[in-house]
Amino acid sequence: MMIREWIIFALCFGIGGHIALGVILHAPGYWPWSTAGFYGLLSGLALYGVVQACRALWKALKQSSRNTSKDEPGPSW
Questions:
Q1: Number of domains in the chain
Q2: pTM for the model
Q3: Burial 1-15 (b: 16+ CB within 10 A, else e)
C-alpha cells in the first residue's frame, strides 16, 4: 500500500517537472529559468493533490454504488 503511494508521488513530481520544463521551453516569458525548480515542485504538488482528490472521489463513488446495489434485489435466477 505504501509503495503504491510513493510511486504515485514520484510520478506526479516527474510529470510536474516535465510540465514546468515544457512551459519554460515553449513560453519562456511566463516562467524564467531561475524559478524552474520551484515551479516544477509546485506543479508536482498540485498534480499530486488533483490525483489524490480524484482517487478519493472514485473511492466514494465506488462505495456508494456498492451500498445501493446491496439495497436492490438481485436477479432471481
A1: 1
A2: 0.77
A3: eeeeeeeeeeebbeb
Q: Got the DSSP string for 16-76?
A: HHHHHHHHHHH-TTTS-GGGHHHHHHHHHHHHHHHHHHHHHHHHHHHHHHHHHHHHS----
Give a yes or no: residue 33 inside a domain: yes
Judge whether residue 29 has pLDDT over 60.
Answer: yes
pLDDT digits (tens, 9 = 90+) for 43-63: 999 999 999 999 999 999 998
The answer to whether residue 21 sits within a structural domain is yes
Question: Residue 43 is part of which domain span?
Answer: 1-50
The whole-angstrom separation of Cα 31 and Cα 39 is: 8
